[in-house]
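G., the chain you wanted modeled:
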Amino acid sequence: MSDAALTMDMDVTPQEQEKTGTSTFSRVARYTLVRVILLFLMVIVGVYLTILIANMGGYVDEMRRGFIREHVSVAIFADESAEMKRMSSEEKKALIEERVALAEKRLGLDKPFVVRSFAFLKDAMTLNLGLAELMFSDSGSKQVRLILLERLPPTLALWGAANLFLFFLSLFLALYLSRRYGSLLDKLIVALAPSSAAPAWFYGLFLILIFAAVLQILPFGSMVAAPPPESTVGYALSVLKHLILPVSAIVISAIFASAYGWRTFFLIYSSEDYVEMAKAKGLSSREIERRYILRPTLPTIITSFAMTLIALWQGAIILETVFNWPGLGRALYRAIGLFDTPVIVGSTVIYAYLLAITVFLLDFIYALVDPRVKIGDEGRRA
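Predicted structure as tokens:
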């Protein structure tokens, strides 16, 4: 360091250093507050749109009114009691209207949908998920929270195993391909990348046909054998056996496109000038890869990994249905078919919160792993 630089460092007083630290803290605090407010507003908009879509703009309420009227009418006209037999048709119609009005008031259907939609929004944002309308948990409860929590472990087991395996496999395969650009394997992966256009459930059908129907070496679906094994080890082995086909379907569906995407990304960074300079200095390929290729791409890798983790919450509606897997995706499929709005909104609300929290934390993680990134206005100007 030159004498001029030393003199400049010595001229910085403790008061100026404290002022700089206070300025940095206020900048980060201001950025954090603005970021939290914006993300919260986006969550509100997303949840409210989900409420409107799940209720079809109020059309589902009309369907509920129709179901209530039909149920009450059938119950009254099927009543063979003496009191009912003495009633005239007009009296029965009046009784139907009275009971329908009571049922609609109990469910809040006597209020306009716009008013009720904001009440739904308030409950959703405070995580007061309420009761399902037609669905039940395995314990017989109608609480949306319990219904979702009971379906979470199977989804974590399936998508956690599949996506984590897929993520790291595609990452290491892409690194290997970037070192051997133009090789036979590289050309094969590039040629097979379009096959990822087909969804996982499409490959799942073929896997079921081959390994379950024809070869009969793997189960058709479900999570565990029926009846389930009594021992813990036997139960775990049965779950692992049932995981093979759905996990294979997910990996086959996405591995080629994922490896191709990461491979192209690594090739772009490996052609930078500073990488060529590192090669001229005589650094080993492993060291160049670790310091000059992986490190600059670390924010992107972390982002992809974080998005993979929170995507576990939604599961896959069609895949879990094809394999009869009792996860969140299949529960959401049933909720959509039954127009069970609380379950649909509850699942979406939790995912929206997870997404907002992840996006918020990623801003700070970027600043930790990449010194070029700074939080706040000064970071953007830099």
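The CA atoms of residues 229 and 351 lie 34 Å apart.

Shout if anything looks off.
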